[in-house]
Design brief:
The complex is a heterodimer.
Chain A (H helix, E strand, L loop, with lengths): L1 H11 L3 H4 L13 H11 L3 E5 L5 E6 H9 L7 H4 L7 E2 L4 H11 L3 E5 L5 E6 H27 L1 H4 L6 E8 L9 H12 L4 H21 L4 E8 L2 E8 L7 H6 L8 H4 L8 H8 L2 E7 L3 E9 L11
Chain B lengths: L2 H8 L2 E4 L10 E4 L3 H7 L4 E5 L4 H9 L4 E4 L7 H9 L3 E4 L4 H11 L6
Classes of the chains: A alpha+beta, B alpha/beta.
C-alpha cells in the first residue's frame, strides 16, 4: 500500500509548497517552556519551530521535549535549552515524494519547510500530505462530475425539435489489437450522457460483439454509428461484405459460426455474438446480402423501461 | 475480498496493474470463449482464462472486471502487459490449471454470480 500511495503522489507531481501549512507559529529560544506549553495547547500542535530575533530557524521543539523537561523537573527552563538543533528540513520546491521518503528515513513527525533563501515558510506533517492528496482526488472527482453534468444536460440545453448526437467509429479488418476500443468509447459517451448503468452495460456488450464481427468477418472492416438522443441510443453497424449466407441460422442456431479455426482458437466465434446482441438490445434488425454487405441496427432505450409506480 | 488478498493466497504473479490490487472482488467467472464472458461475467468479477491476447483486456475493461487471472502459464505478450497497465487492469498469472485456480478461489469464498 505505501508503495502505491507514493506512485500516486509521483503521478500528481505534488510539491511541498502545495500541501504544507503556511500559518506557522514559532517561538524564540528565550521563551519559557510554560509559555510554549500554552502555545501548543491553545493551537493544538505538537511541535513548534524555534527562530531567533532575525527570523532564522535555529531549532525545533516538540511535545516530547516538553514531557522530557517535565520528567527532569526542568519546566522552569527556556525553549533554547530544550530544543533539538539537529535540523532536518525540506525545501518548498521539493516533491512531496521526496518529503515522504525523508519522513520514512528519519522517523520525524514534522519537517520545517524553507524557501530557496533559507527562510522558514511553512511546516509539513504527514497529515498535510494526506489532506493535500484528498483535496486533489476530490477535485478529480468534481471535474468528472461537472463533465458528466454538462453532457447529461446537452439534450435540455440545446434547443431543437429533435436533438441527437452522432458518433462514428471506423473499424479496420482483423485489427484484434484495438478490437473493443470503439465500444469502450461508446460506453464512455453513454456514461457521460447520464444513461442508466445497466443500459450502458448492455449497449457496450452489444456494441462489442458487433465490433468484433466487423473485425473478424468484414472484408474491409466497417463502420459503427451510434446515434444518441434524449430517449434512446441506436447503433448501426455496416460493412460492404462478404454478407451472411444464412441469416436465420446465424441469428437463431446456438453455436452456428463461420469464424475460421485460427480465430476461434483466440476465443472468438462461438456462434453467440448475434444472440448476445439480441439479448441486450430492445430492438434489432439485421439485413444482409452475400456480395453486398451487412447492416445491423439495434436500439436501446436509455432510461428504465417503466417509470416508478408503473407495472413491472 | 480484495484482488491483493487473492494474489497472496494463490501466490499469483502480478503481470500488470499493480496499482489496482486494492479493488474489491464481487465474484468469479471462468471461460475462454469471449462471447460467454461478455454475456455472463459481472462488474467486479475476477476472470480466470488461458487466453492472453489484447482482446481479453478489451473484454475485461468493458465489463469493468476486477482482475484477470491467466492460467496454465500461458505466455503473455508484452503489448498485453503494457495495455493492461495503461487500462489500470490487474493482470495476474499462474502456472496452475484453471480448475485449480477456481477451486482455490471457491475455498477463499469467491462465488459465482449467476
Amino acid at each position: 500500500m505505501p508503495d502505491q500511495e507514493i506512485t500516486r503522489v509521483q503521478k500528481l507531481d505534488f510539491r511541498v509548497g502545495q500541501v504544507m501549512s503556511r500559518n506557522v507559529i514559532t517561538v524564540t529560544p528565550g521563551a519559557p517552556l510554560t509559555e510554549l506549553k500554552e502555545i501548543m495547547r491553545v493551537n493544538r500542535i505538537s511541535g513548534v519551530p524555534v527562530v531567533n530575533e532575525d527570523g532564522d530557524l535555529v531549532g525545533l521543539i516538540s511535545i516530547e521535549d516538553l514531557f522530557r523537561a517535565y520528567e527532569d523537573g526542568a519546566f522552569h527552563e527556556f525553549v533554547g535549552g530544550r530544543m533539538s538543533t539537529s535540523l532536518i528540513t525540506v525545501q518548498e520546491a521539493d516533491s512531496v515524494d521526496a518529503a515522504m521518503q525523508k519522513f520514512q528515513q528519519t522517523g520525524v513527525g514534522r519537517l520545517p519547510v524553507l524557501n530557496a533563501w533559507g527562510d522558514l515558510v511553512g511546516m509539513l506533517t504527514k497529515g498535510d500530505i494526506t489532506r493535500g492528496l484528498l483535496r486533489e482526488i476530490q477535485m478529480d472527482t468534481q471535474d468528472e462530475e461537472i463533465c458528466r453534468y454538462r453532457a447529461s444536460h446537452i439534450f435540455r440545453d440545446v434547443e431543437s425539435d429533435d436533438t441527437s448526437l452522432i458518433l462514428r467509429y471506423k473499424i479496420p479488418p482483423l485489427d484484434f489489437t484495438h478490437g473493443g476500443e470503439a465500444s469502450s468509447k461508446v460506453k464512455h459517451a453513454l456514461t457521460r450522457l447520464g444513461a442508466d448503468m445497466q443500459i450502458v452495460r448492455r449497449a457496450a456488450i452489444a456494441s462489442y460483439e458487433a465490433e468484433m464481427n466487423l473485425i473478424i468477418h468484414a472484408d474491409h472492416g466497417g463502420l459503427i454509428t451510434a446515434k444518441v438522443d434524449a430517449s434512446q441510443v441506436t447503433l448501426t453497424i455496416e460493412d460492404d461484405g462478404p454478407g451472411i449466407a444464412d441469416v436465420k441460422r446465424a441469428l437463431e442456431e446456438p453455436g452456428y459460426t463461420t469464424t475460421p479455426p485460427e480465430i476461434r482458437a483466440m476465443g472468438f466465434g462461438g456462434g453467440m455474438g448475434l444472440k448476445n446482441i439480441r439479448k441486450c438490445a430492445d430492438t434489432m434488425k439485421l439485413e444482409s446480402e452475400v456480395g453486398r454487405g451487412t447492416k445491423l441496427e439495434i436500439s436501446l432505450r436509455l432510461h428504465s423501461r417503466e417509470a416508478p409506480g408503473q407495472k413491472r | 475480498m480484495t484482488v491483493n488478498e487473492i494474489v497472496r493466497a494463490l501466490n499469483l504473479q502480478v503481470i500488470a496493474g499493480a496499482g489496482t490490487l486494492n479493488r474489491e472482488i464481487t465474484g468469479g467467472y471462468s471461460a475462454d470463449l469471449l462471447s460467454c464472458v461478455m454475456a455472463r461475467a459481472k462488474a467486479g468479477n475476477v476472470w480466470v482464462t488461458l487466453q492472453a491476447h489484447p482482446n481479453v483486456l478489451a473484454v475485461a475493461v468493458l465489463l469493468e472486471l476486477a482482475a484477470v487471472i491467466v492460467s496454465e502459464g500461458a505466455p503473455i505478450p508484452d503489448e498485453v502487459k503494457a495495455k493492461a497497465d495503461a487500462e489500470n487492469l490487474a493482470l495476474l498469472a499462474t502456472p496452475h490449471t484453471t480448475f485449480w485456480v477456481v477451486s482455490e478461489l471457491a475455498r477463499l469464498g469467491v462465488q459465482a454470480q449467476e
